[in-house]
Design brief:
heterodimer; A: alpha/beta; 2-enoyl-CoA Hydratase, Chain A, domain 1; 2 domains; 13 helices; 9 strands; about 50% helix; B: alpha/beta
């Protein structure tokens, strides 16, 4: 065993390997095992260390995407709204307790069709981010979205959602006001509507807060956006008990568009200008506009029942297991 | 039988009394965690349970890289709980009334929802529609199962769609919130029930107290996410003691017969 290799890996992971090593050393001391070579076990451990190094390289590549997805110069929901939809009318309020600015809702026209638009808005500088609460939503936001979805459904307007959120806002007031139920009901409503739904991930797709707006007949991710069950930071805190594993966690979670299309979680990857959307925001908006018009054309040929059932069937078939 | 120390009042409880009282402290009424098999036994009529979907098993399809492999974590959870996943589902009877029942187990990887939990709930929902019998799910979960990445997040969508079909078929759906229920499970099928019953001492929230604390940099009030607070805020219909749950469920089911 080449012990030098052990110096190249971090402590948390080392602990497990050392545990296995010390067990092996103990076994070797038992007279019964004298003369037996533990070559296989040693080879396994060596492989584990090599695996780690391979993962670390991949993690560095994935981490770049995580950083790009969070880049504040990327076009935001408001940029897409301004660049894609004509005669846009902003709508606000959940008609119950308030308005949540982290989600923008309204009606506009694209390719000659009226559509409803719902999207998280993160804001670009610190003042804007405070206004939009960093794109982290509270129940009022999910309930407002639901109101707009129901409106769209009654008038047959397709729904377009832009996803860009670190996750739902973790706050006491949000919880007291039924955060969990508001997200669940938003998902439920997205299944109920009989109009086509297009969901586009433009930046960060954080957990349930992202899913609440992402039950699309077509779910697309911009090349450098992410979609994850938990943030790499949160995952590392739980599994690695500290920030040392953040990059590794970003690799483990398979949160990139390329991973997720293979897992059939999403339907389409939208290519970004070279180096990322932030390098050519206007071109990015045009590419997304073209995509939206194409998909709307495709769905205009389907019946309302086909649209609703197709969406449910797609999501209900997701999952991997042995049976 | 050995003595058991109550987690809440620290009093010593006679082991047999503790089990006979369904793991509820006879001194302070604290509801200790109960496994799915034990829960099933105290909830449904004897020998009435027929399990569904028991042969579906989790797989490490992401080859999830972690200090401990997903496969090892699954093996350990199986040994610890005697379950093969974080939920058991099937058909049973409560006081003679047929129902589709699902019971989650927090001991199995924190009751986390992965592909198997999602698929079993879909099977259970389908069964309740096919047999036209009410659906009851006992929830307990820390959230979605990280080891299955975004596919576990999709189980929220999958279960919501399944529950939607149950409701479209005018079938009653009751969820029972037990300690703790949070994350992806609370933001999907747990909160979409027609009637939501909470057990005493059950934490029920989306973001847990630790996550809140990290964000607001101070600890949330001690009753955060508690059954009492949720009742006051209108998030649940009632709080029912574990030993009365069967009676209360039977009562409600009879009204819908």
């Amino acid at each position: 065993m080449n012990f030098k290799k052990l110096t190249e890996i971090p402590k948390s992971y080392l602990k497990e390997i050392l545990g296995a090593l010390s067990k092996l050393e103990k076994l070797k001391k038992i007279p019964f095992f004298t003369g037996i070579h533990f070559r296989d076990a040693e080879r396994d451990l060596t492989r584990k260390i090599d695996d780690y190094k391979k993962y670390e390289r991949e993690a560095a590549r994935v981490w770049k995407i995580v950083e790009l997805s969070r880049n504040e110069k990327r076009p935001r929901t408001l940029d897409y709204i301004n660049g894609i939809f004509e005669s846009f009318v902003h709508l606000s309020g959940d008609r119950l307790t308030g308005d949540d600015k982290s989600i923008i809702t309204g009606l506009g026209s694209v390719g000659g069709r009226t559509v409803a638009v719902i999207g998280h808005n993160k804001g670009r500088n610190i003042e804007e981010r405070m206004i939009y609460n960093f794109g982290m939503s509270i129940p009022q936001g999910y309930r407002k979205s639901r109101r707009i979805m129901e409106l769209a459904d009654r008038f047959g307007f397709p729904i377009i959602t832009f996803v860009d959120t670190p996750g739902a806002y973790p706050a006491i007031e949000a919880e007291d006001n039924g955060q969990a139920g508001a997200i669940a009901k938003s998902i439920s409503t997205m299944f109920e509507v009989k109009v086509p739904v297009i969901s586009i991930f433009i930046g960060e797709g954080g957990s349930g807060g992202a899913l609440a707006l992402a039950i699309g007949n077509e779910v697309a991710m911009l090349e450098n956006s992410t979609y994850s069950v938990i943030s790499p930071e949160g995952c590392a805190a739980i599994l690695w008990k500290g920030p040392s594993g953040t990059r590794l966690a970003s690799r483990s979670l398979r949160l990139t568009s390329r991973d997720l299309i293979k897992l059939k979680v999403i339907d389409k990857i939208i290519s970004e200008p070279i180096g990322g959307a932030q390098n050519a925001p206007e071109r990015m908006v045009k590419i997304v506009k073209k995509y939206i018009i194409n998909v709307l054309d495709k769905y205009s040929r389907l019946s309302t029942e086909e649209i609703k059932i197709g969406r449910a069937k797609k999501f209900e078939s997701m999952g991997f297991f042995d049976s | 039988m050995e003595k058991i120390k109550c987690k809440n009042c620290n009093k010593e409880i006679d082991g047999e009394t503790f089990l006979l009282n369904s793991r509820v402290c006879p001194y302070c009424n604290y509801h200790h965690t109960i496994g799915a098999r034990d829960r099933l036994q105290i909830t449904v009529d004897e020998n009435s349970f027929v399990e569904l979907g028991k042969n579906i098993n989790s797989v490490d399809f992401l080859n999830f890289f972690d200090v401990k492999s997903y496969g090892t974590r699954l093996k350990e959870a199986k040994l610890k709980t005697g379950m093969n996943e974080a939920i058991i589902v099937g058909e049973a009877k409560i006081e003679g009334i047929g129902l589709a029942i699902g019971i989650m187990d927090f001991g199995f990887m924190g009751g986390s929802m992965g592909s198997v939990v999602g698929e079993r709930i879909k099977i259970l929902a389908g069964h309740s529609i096919e047999k036209n019998i009410p659906l009851v799910i006992f929830c307990t979960s820390g959230g979605a199962r990280m080891q299955e990445g975004a596919v576990s997040l999709m189980q929220m969508a999958k279960t919501v769609s399944s529950i939607n079909r149950v409701k479209e078929n005018k079938i009653l759906y009751i969820s029972v919130i037990t300690n703790p229920t949070s994350g992806g499970v609370s933001a999907s099928f747990a909160t979409l029930a027609d009637i939501i019953i909470a057990e005493p001492d059950s934490l029920f929230c989306f973001a847990g107290p630790r996550v809140i604390e990290q964000t607001i940099k101070k600890s949330p009030p001690p009753d955060f996410g508690s059954a009492e607070r949720n009742l006051k805020n209108g998030q649940v219909d009632m709080i029912v003691n574990r030993n009365y749950l069967k009676k209360v469920l039977a009562n409600i089911l009879r009204l819908f017969e």
